Amino acid sequence: MNILLTSAGRRVELLECIQKSLPHITIYATDKEPIAPTLFVADKAFTVSAITESDYISQLLEISKRHEIDGIIPLLDPELTILSDNRNLFNENKIQLVLSNDNSIKIANDKILTSTFFKKIQIKTPVTIKVKNEIIPDIPSKINFPLFIKPRFGSNSRDVGICKNLEELSFFSSRIDEPIVQENIEGNEVTIDVFGDGTGDIFSMVPRLRLKIRCGEVERALTLDDKLFIDDVIRICKEFKPYGPINIQCFVTDDGPIFSEINARFGGGYPLSDVAGARFPELLFELINGKKLSNHLG
């Protein structure tokens, strides 16, 4: 089997997890940067255009056809929509995208839709407001300071900050593209790695307490018992229907978990879950080969 990791960047440890679990497969990698670390440990690597360039999809398709790629695993949030929009093109060439359905990608990439999704299925989530639809002085009547401000479509914690007063809110809202504000939740931040088959069923989940963050991705973490999270995660995934790996973020408070984000891809900290016993590479192999997935819950 041949798989392709796109926008591979510095996901060296993830690639090594897959190599260790599946030594018989060939792993290809692409990135726009020729010195991206993961390109140097992949079995075969290619430098490609930026995901926003018009020839990006044609380059991926050419690489995939030439090297008989069975499955493509995207690793960057902004790329998910681009691949989702071209899903039929890859399907026609019998190249499987390990990517959740189009609607789920939209929900994950849009923080307003994520908030609406959680509320619709009765999952606790922070109060979230689009700044452009509000008169800034009225916002404190709906969300108390301090509050989070972030881009509606951002990723990797870029342009994310805390505003302590109206002056800071006015300053940052004028400098962030499509800003939203979100209730500041006091609690331990937890990321839950989850693997699904696209039907709403899940086959593995590992919660991990985020101890140290770098560029929006976890660098150090501590795995946790899943009992506190499993009922909510099952409810979320029944509606979200993840296909392959996703990660869900929440805050653990005295009132239980409060869920804030979904990332429809491998989490940056997945290798920590792998060490703790997650078996996502094995599930990935089964998924791409059309086999019934092994159950690793519990």
Q: TL;DR of this structure?
A:
This protein has helices at 12-21, 56-66, 77-85, 87-92, 102-109, 111-120, 166-173, 230-240, 270-275, 280-288, and strands at 2-6, 26-31, 44-47, 71-74, 96-97, 128-130, 147-151, 161-163, 179-183, 188-197, 202-214, 217-223, 243-253, 256-263. With 298 residues, it is α/β, with parallel strands linked by helices.
Describe the protein's architecture and organization.
The chain is of the alpha/beta class. The protein folds into three domains: about 1-100, Rossmann fold (3-Layer(aba) Sandwich), CATH 3.40.50; about 105-125 and about 185-290, ATP-grasp fold, B domain (D-amino Acid Aminotransferase, Chain A, domain 1, 2-Layer Sandwich), CATH 3.30.470.20; about 130-185, Dna Ligase, domain 1, CATH 3.30.1490. Helix content is about 30%, strand content about 30%. The two termini are about 30 Å apart.
Topology:
Blueprint: E1 2-6, H1 12-21, E2 26-31, E3 44-47, H2 56-66, E4 71-74, H3 77-85, H4 87-92, E5 96-97, H5 102-109, H6 111-120, E6 128-130, E7 147-151, E8 161-163, H7 166-173, E9 179-183, E10 188-197, E11 202-214, E12 217-223, H8 230-240, E13 243-253, E14 256-263, H9 270-275, H10 280-288
Parallel strand pairs: 1-2, 1-4, 2-3, 4-5
Antiparallel strand pairs: 6-9, 7-8, 7-9, 10-11, 10-13, 11-12, 13-14
